[in-house]
Design a protein that fits this description.
With 179 residues, this protein is mostly helical. It has two domains: 1-101, Leucine-rich Repeat Variant (Alpha Horseshoe), CATH 1.25.10.10; 102-179. The protein contains ten helices and no strands. It has helices spanning 7-18, 23-36, 42-51, 55-65, 74-83, 86-98, 107-116, 119-130, 138-154, 159-178. Helix 1 runs antiparallel to helix 2 (23-36), helix 3 (42-51) packs antiparallel against helix 4 (55-65) and helix 8 packs parallel to helix 10.
C-alpha cells in the first residue's frame, strides 16, 4: 500500500534531514526544499548554514535563499538578523535583496543590523534600502532616523559610517516625501 506523507510530515522530515551529519542526506533535503519547502524551513536552512563546514551545502542554501518567491519568507529572514552570526546575517540581507522581497515594514530592523554588524552587513543593508519602493510607514521611517541619529552621536567616522551616511540620506529623503 502506497502511503503518502502529509505536507507537515514532509516539512518535518526535511528539517530532520537538514540536521544530518551525512552530507548526501543534507543535500537531498536541500533539493526537496526547492519543490516542497515553505517559510517554515528557513530557520533550519540557516541553522545548517551556520553549522556546516561544507562549502557545497552552503552554496546550495545560498542559492535557495536567493530565489525565494513567497512573501511569507520575509519574517524568518528578518528574525535571522537578530539571531544569526555575521555570515548568516549577510546571507539573510542578500536573500531579501536578491529575492525582491518587500522589506518596507522592516527598514528599522535592517538599519539596526547595519549598525550592529560589519561593513559588509551595512553595505548589504544599503543595497536593500536603495531598492525599496513606496509606500513607507511613517513610524518605521521615524524610528530609522532615530536609530541612525543615535549611532552618529556615539561613533567616530569609519568606512562603515560612510555607508550609514548614505542610508541616512535615503531615509531622510523618504521622510521628506512623507511630509
Amino acid at each position: 500500500m502506497n502511503q503518502t506523507k502529509k505536507p507537515g510530515q514532509v516539512i518535518a522530515q526535511i528539517m530532520i534531514d537538514l540536521n544530518s551529519e551525512k552530507e548526501d542526506i543534507v543535500l537531498k533535503a536541500i533539493k526537496k526544499v526547492r519543490s516542497k519547502g515553505n517559510e517554515q524551513i528557513i530557520p533550519s536552512l540557516f541553522n545548517t548554514y551556520r553549522t556546516t563546514k561544507t562549502n557545497r551545502i552552503k552554496d546550495e542554501i545560498t542559492n535557495i535563499l536567493s530565489e525565494l518567491k513567497s512573501t511569507a519568507t520575509i519574517e524568518p529572514l528578518i528574525e535571522e538578523l537578530n539571531i544569526g552570526n555575521e555570515a548568516s546575517r549577510c546571507l539573510a540581507l542578500t536573500a531579501i535583496w536578491s529575492s525582491g522581497l518587500n522589506a518596507n515594514e522592516h527598514i528599522d530592523e535592517i538599519i539596526q543590523t547595519a549598525i550592529n554588524g560589519s561593513f559588509l552587513e551595512a553595505f548589504e543593508a544599503l543595497t536593500i534600502i536603495e531598492n525599496l519602493d513606496p509606500p513607507f510607514e511613517e513610524e518605521v521611517i521615524l524610528n530609522s532616523q532615530l536609530i541612525l541619529k543615535t549611532y552618529f552621536g556615539n561613533h567616530e567616522k569609519s568606512e562603515k559610517s560612510e555607508v550609514l551616511r548614505n542610508i541616512t540620506a535615503i531615509i531622510n529623503g523618504i521622510n521628506s516625501n512623507l511630509q
